[in-house]
Amino acid sequence: MYNELLRKEHKLAVIGLGYVGLPIALEFARKIDVIGFDINAKRVEMMKNGIDPSCELDKEAFEGCQISFTDSLEELKEARFFVVAVPTPVDEHNVPDLTPVLKASETIGKVIKKGDYVVFESTVYPGCTEEDCLPVIEKFPD
Ligand SMILES: NC(=O)c1ccc[n+]([C@@H]2O[C@H](COP(=O)([O-])OP(=O)(O)OC[C@H]3O[C@@H](n4cnc5c(N)ncnc54)[C@H](O)[C@@H]3O)[C@@H](O)[C@H]2O)c1
After folding, report:
1. For residue 24, what are the contacts with CB-CB under 8 A and spacing of at least 6?
2. Average of pLDDT values for 2-30?
3. pTM, two decimal places
4. CA atoms within 13 A on the CB side of 138
5. 63 C-alpha to center of ligand 1: Å?
6. Least CB-packed of 35, 67, 85, 97 within 10 Å?
7. Ligand 1 in contact with 52 (CB < 6 A)?
8. Distance of CA 76 to CAs 14, 22, 68, 112, 130, Å?
9. Domains: count for the chain
10. Is 127 helix (H, G, I), strand (E, B) or coil?
């Protein structure tokens, strides 16, 4: 998969383009084809115009990058390697709200194909990926 990504035979998608996801996506996009996916259409529009909605990166950070910003599931289907960087906020008892990672898992379930890879960059507790996210990914293929 690594060499296929480098040869641009496959695309990598970063899901959730915030403080963590956008710099990761742009760095990958210097070497390989990247799909930057976010559910927030307004943020997607800003990034298409070279603006970081989190106000961390300059316009130059977008230059020389092979990246397509989108909120479209259809476009996400072109990816074979998925990196999840959606938020995991905690409440006053430090209990994480898994809604974004479960929604992102649902999204991946709808587009994933045999042999694809998924990496969770979002902060989760041990076992969360296997016990909470994987069943959702497996449940949703078309
Ligand atoms: N692994 C690491 O090194 C590391 C370091 C710091 C933070 N984190 C973790 O990374 C995660 C992201 O944090 P952040 O500060 O970038 O968050 P953020 O709030 O800055 O950005 C989150 C982005 O995800 C988008 N989003 C939310 N739900 C989505 C969904 N279902 N599908 C697609 N996009 C969605 C939002 O629109 C937003 O653009 C958190 O879990 C954080 O704890 C990891």
Report:
1. 14, 83, 85, 121
2. 97
3. 0.95
4. 7
5. 23
6. 97
7. no
8. 10, 16, 10, 9, 22
9. 1
10. coil
CATH code assigned at 98: 3.40.50.720
- List, for residues 41-78, the tens digit of each pLDDT value: 999 999 999 999 999 999 999 999 999 999 999 999 99
Over the stretch 127-140, which tens digit does the pLDDT of each residue have? 999 999 999 999 97
Residue 104 tokens read as 């992102």
Task: Look up residue 50 and give its two tokens.
Answer: 């070279």
Q: Nearest-CA neighbor of 86 among 112, 124, 56? A: 124
Instruction: Calculate how far, in angstroms, residue 6's C-alpha sits from the geometric centre of ligand 1.
Output: 25
Q: How far is CA 70 from CA 52, 61, 93, 95, in A?
A: 14, 18, 35, 31
DSSP for 64-100? T--EEEE--HHHHTTEEEEEE-----B-TT--B--HH
